[in-house]
Write a structure and sequence with these properties.
The protein is α/β, with parallel strands linked by helices and 429 residues long. Helix content is 38%, strand content 19%. Strand 15, helix 9 (313-323) and strand 16 (327-331) form a beta-alpha-beta unit. It is elongated and about 90 Å long.
């Protein structure tokens, strides 16, 4: 009736299926083909894939239950839960149903989950691990494991692109089709994204290189000004919870408490953020103030900084993809009541969990990416050298921006620009 194969790594998941559907049960070995063009793998969103083998009618009923929810934002964990509940309530033919759910989980880790009617659809979860691939499959009338061992796993060492993986899986489907008349060679394939961007089968770059380029671990700096310093610990904990499983590092520059000796204003937030970003000591800055407006304006007053004003997850997602900046300013006083940490968590998930610069909506990708390049060019002309700017600003204002308790130990360890480092040392004196 069907075959589904999947490969999952630490930053991608790929699935392929055949397209044949036959009438069940099969009697006297006679195969009645109902269709040769039934896709058995579905991409719910850029993080989650679902595939099936077995009773196609039952599987379709189960998978269609997902459409009662907004699948665009459905997590892998939620998809598994919905599928399990629906499957346990859906009768199926003796051939059974096997569901494969693959992709990136809520904490950023890639995984494969198998749900089989023979196991009452109890989820069998396998997390991806560095240096290895998860390789899984199911076939209605043929034991698939020997095929994986013979035709898929030996090829893994030679995989360099997603095309390589697709070619291997297609070949395995073809071998299954030779031995099993319920399987054909009409191939359907889907991939889901690496953590920071999408790697598709037609991506010209090797997928390992693509992952390294797009999923590069970032050093994310957290900066709080004085009016919202009391929330620093909460913000840091929430940020770490979301981004550390993605491989990113959080560096807290304070303020750490309202009574810190070094009192940062939102203007000084801008100075500090500019120094961190332009020197390479940080790749991204999370900051804010009461409304977020002042901090945003301060950060955007400096070269090398593109700061967005972000109030909610939609703001975060669209800023990441449309504007592709390197800093955000959040309103830590406005609407920050019960559930404030949840909004922060969702903001950080959308900011860092779905890539950057991919455009939104899809039909606007090309002009948005073009406009971002134009803006970068305008800013390069509009601003002068950061070190010259720092020297011309009020000395006490600049020195105060670097007065945080842990500034020196963090900055000089991570700074990649000798000129900026020398300038900062001089201004701190």
């Amino acid at each position: 009736m069907s075959a589904i194969l999947a490969v999952c790594g630490t930053a991608f998941c790929a699935m392929v299926s055949d397209g044949r559907m036959v009438e069940e049960p099969i009697t006297d070995g006679k195969i009645k083909v109902l269709t040769d063009a039934l896709p058995k793998v579905r991409k719910l969103n850029r993080n989650v894939l679902v595939g099936f083998a077995g009773d196609a009618v039952a599987a379709a009923q189960i998978i269609n239950k997902l459409d009662e929810y907004d699948v665009q934002y459905m997590t892998l964990e939620k998809a598994v839960k919905v599928l399990q509940q629906a499957a346990q309530q859906t009768p199926c033919a003796p051939v059974g149903v096997r569901l494969l759910v693959g992709g990136r989980g809520r904490k950023g880790n890639f995984q494969l989950v198998m749900l089989a009617s023979t196991e009452d659809y109890a989820p069998q979860t396998q997390p991806a691990k560095d240096g290895t691939y998860l390789i899984e499959g199911a076939c209605s009338h043929t034991e698939v494991a020997p095929y994986l061992e013979q035709y898929v796993k030996p090829e893994a060492a030679r995989w360099h692109t997603l095309d390589d993986i697709a070619k291997t899986l297609d070949g395995c489907i073809a071998k299954l089709a030779e031995a099993d008349q319920t399987v054909n060679t009409k191939i359907f394939s889907r991939t889901c994204n690496v953590i920071n961007g999408i790697a598709t089968a037609d991506d010209p770059a090797p997928f390992k290189d693509t992952i390294n380029r797009r999923n590069q671990a970032m050093k994310i700096a957290l900066i709080n000004e004085n009016s919202q310093a009391a929330k620093n610990a909460l913000i840091e904990a929430t940020l770490r919870k979301v981004v550390e499983p993605m491989g990113h590092e959080v560096v807290n520059y304070g303020m750490y408490a309202a009574d810190d000796a070094a009192q940062l204003t939102y203007v000084q937030n801008g100075i500090l953020a500019a120094v961190l970003l332009n020197s390479g000591a940080a790749d991204y800055v999370i900051t804010g103030c009461g409304t977020g407006e002042g901090a945003m304006l301060a950060l955007n007053s400096f070269p090398g900084v593109i700061c967005g004003h972000v109030e909610d997850p939609v703001d975060a997602y669209t800023f990441a993809h449309v504007n592709d900046g390197n800093a955000v300013a959040l309103p830590f006083a406005k609407g920050f009541g019960w559930g404030g940490e949840l909004n922060l968590e969702y903001v950080f998930e959308k900011l860092f969990g779905f890539g950057h610069g991919q455009g939104y909506p899809k039909e606007r990708v090309v002009p948005e990416q073009r406009n971002k390049k134009i803006l970068d060019g305008v800013r390069s002309v509009a601003f002068r050298d950061l070190c010259d700017i720092l020297k011309d600003l009020d000395h006490d204002l600049v020195k105060g921006a670097f007065a945080g308790e842990h500034f020196a130990e963090h900055f000089f360890a991570d700074c990649k620009d000798e000129k900026i480092a020398a300038t900062v040392k001089k201004l701190m004196a």
